[in-house]
């Protein structure tokens, strides 16, 4: 099964590029940029990754990204992840990026975009990997700040495959970001949002009704609201589920408690993703493997999940066809 899961052409739709920063690269960049870290070793960093909830993770996630200062850093960060993912059989990556987290540290948008663009071109050329970019807004920051970032990103609108909504969910409902998402819609930019990770099912409804999103990131708490589950099924809304993330952030206690089997039984369209692989114990292959171990899923289920990811990806129809062909050839 491991060989099959590795060979399976996997499209990743939910990945925070800053959450792919492995401790080894964190130390290398800290040294290159003269940034001091509150850790003595790579082992010490890893042992600090013992989270109690989303906020306890976000604190270390924002601290970790302090080593990212130059376009070269963002390039190295993304290439490091693309190479690892490619080795695991990932053929397409859609990455969220958090511009506000960098602006707050004096790292301007062109630095971030230039580094990531360089890495994306290189991934295409050297790994045959397609990528997409999702500019995310930090929902615990003011809506006005998100609007200002959206406007200042005008030179990069063409490069954006979608806008997203992430960071601390509770108390920061999608309704807060109606204006900036409406602006994205007017500009013809697709929309996604984290909802129903720690927040209530009502936030999933809001994301659909008020932000007009085409996918829900996480969404696992929809099961608390049967009418919402029926709606998600009827409308074919895709949930980008991140099983190891949910365990590490204690959305669920253990993998065997994860609601993925119920979500699947409910007829929902699901994909498996790594979220923040450097912080949550592994990338795409680890997430697929953990599902196999916890639920004993057959190859057919993994093929179905891989198929849904290809169908829901922000890619050209030509690329979609190519990935469907790769998937058909692997089994
Ligand atoms: N930012 C990075 N990872 C996140 C997650 N799992 N939820 C919300 N915001 C995030
Ligand atoms: Zn996420």
UniProtKB/TrEMBL annotation:
<feature type="domain" description="Adenosine deaminase">
    <location>
        <begin position="9"/>
        <end position="327"/>
    </location>
</feature>
<dbReference type="InterPro" id="IPR028892">
    <property type="entry name" value="ADE"/>
</dbReference>
<dbReference type="InterPro" id="IPR006330">
    <property type="entry name" value="Ado/ade_deaminase"/>
</dbReference>
<feature type="active site" description="Proton donor">
    <location>
        <position position="197"/>
    </location>
</feature>
<dbReference type="GO" id="GO:0000034">
    <property type="term" value="F:adenine deaminase activity"/>
</dbReference>
<keyword id="KW-0479">Metal-binding</keyword>
<feature type="binding site">
    <location>
        <position position="14"/>
    </location>
    <ligand>
        <name>Zn(2+)</name>
    </ligand>
</feature>
<dbReference type="InterPro" id="IPR001365">
    <property type="entry name" value="A_deaminase_dom"/>
</dbReference>
<dbReference type="GO" id="GO:0008270">
    <property type="term" value="F:zinc ion binding"/>
</dbReference>
<keyword id="KW-0862">Zinc</keyword>
<dbReference type="GO" id="GO:0009117">
    <property type="term" value="P:nucleotide metabolic process"/>
</dbReference>
<comment type="function">
    <text>Catalyzes the hydrolytic deamination of adenine to hypoxanthine. Plays an important role in the purine salvage pathway and in nitrogen catabolism.</text>
</comment>
<feature type="binding site">
    <location>
        <position position="16"/>
    </location>
    <ligand>
        <name>Zn(2+)</name>
    </ligand>
</feature>
<feature type="binding site">
    <location>
        <position position="194"/>
    </location>
    <ligand>
        <name>Zn(2+)</name>
    </ligand>
</feature>
<dbReference type="GO" id="GO:0006146">
    <property type="term" value="P:adenine catabolic process"/>
</dbReference>
<keyword id="KW-0546">Nucleotide metabolism</keyword>
<feature type="binding site">
    <location>
        <position position="276"/>
    </location>
    <ligand>
        <name>substrate</name>
    </ligand>
</feature>
<feature type="site" description="Important for catalytic activity">
    <location>
        <position position="218"/>
    </location>
</feature>
<keyword id="KW-0378">Hydrolase</keyword>
<dbReference type="GO" id="GO:0043103">
    <property type="term" value="P:hypoxanthine salvage"/>
</dbReference>
<dbReference type="Pfam" id="PF00962">
    <property type="entry name" value="A_deaminase"/>
</dbReference>
<feature type="binding site">
    <location>
        <position position="275"/>
    </location>
    <ligand>
        <name>Zn(2+)</name>
    </ligand>
</feature>
<protein>
    <recommendedName>
        <fullName>Adenine deaminase</fullName>
        <ecNumber>3.5.4.2</ecNumber>
    </recommendedName>
</protein>
<comment type="similarity">
    <text>Belongs to the metallo-dependent hydrolases superfamily. Adenosine and AMP deaminases family. Adenine deaminase type 2 subfamily.</text>
</comment>
<dbReference type="InterPro" id="IPR032466">
    <property type="entry name" value="Metal_Hydrolase"/>
</dbReference>
<dbReference type="GO" id="GO:0005829">
    <property type="term" value="C:cytosol"/>
</dbReference>
């Amino acid at each position: 099964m491991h060989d099959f899961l590795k060979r399976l052409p996997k499209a990743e739709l939910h990945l925070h590029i800053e959450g792919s920063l492995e401790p080894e690269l964190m130390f290398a960049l800290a040294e290159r940029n003269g940034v001091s870290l509150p850790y003595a070793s790579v082992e010490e960093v890893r042992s600090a990754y013992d989270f109690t909830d989303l906020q306890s993770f976000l604190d270390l996630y924002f601290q970790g990204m302090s080593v990212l200062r130059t376009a070269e850093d963002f390039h190295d960060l993304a290439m490091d992840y693309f190479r690892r993912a490619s080795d695991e059989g990932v053929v397409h990556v859609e990455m969220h990026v958090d511009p506000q987290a960098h602006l707050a540290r004096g790292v301007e948008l062109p630095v971030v975009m230039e580094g990531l663009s360089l890495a994306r071109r290189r991934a295409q050329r050297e790994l045959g990997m397609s990528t997409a970019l999702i500019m995310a807004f930090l929902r615990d920051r003011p809506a006005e700040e998100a609007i200002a970032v959206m406007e200042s990103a005008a030179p990069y609108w063409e490069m954006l495959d979608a806008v997203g909504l992430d960071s601390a969910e509770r108390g920061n409902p999608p309704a807060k970001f109606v204006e900036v998402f409406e602006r994205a819609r007017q500009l013809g930019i697709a929309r996604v949002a984290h909802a129903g990770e720690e927040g209530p099912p009502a936030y999933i409804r809001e994301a659909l009704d008020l932000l007009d999103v085409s996918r829900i990131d996480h969404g696992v708490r929809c099961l608390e609201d049967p009418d919402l589950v029926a709606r998600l099924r009827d409308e074919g809304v895709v949930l980008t589920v991140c099983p190891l993330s949910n365990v590490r952030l204690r959305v669920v206690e253990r993998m065997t408690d994860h609601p993925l089997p119920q979500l699947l039984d409910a007829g929902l369209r699901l994909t498996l993703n790594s979220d923040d692989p450097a912080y949550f114990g592994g990338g795409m292959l680890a997430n697929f493997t953990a599902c196999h171990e916890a639920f004993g899923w057959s190859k057919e289920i993994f093929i179905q999940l891989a198929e849904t990811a290809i169908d829901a990806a922000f890619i050209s129809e030509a690329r979609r066809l190519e990935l469907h062909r790769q998937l058909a050839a692997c089994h």
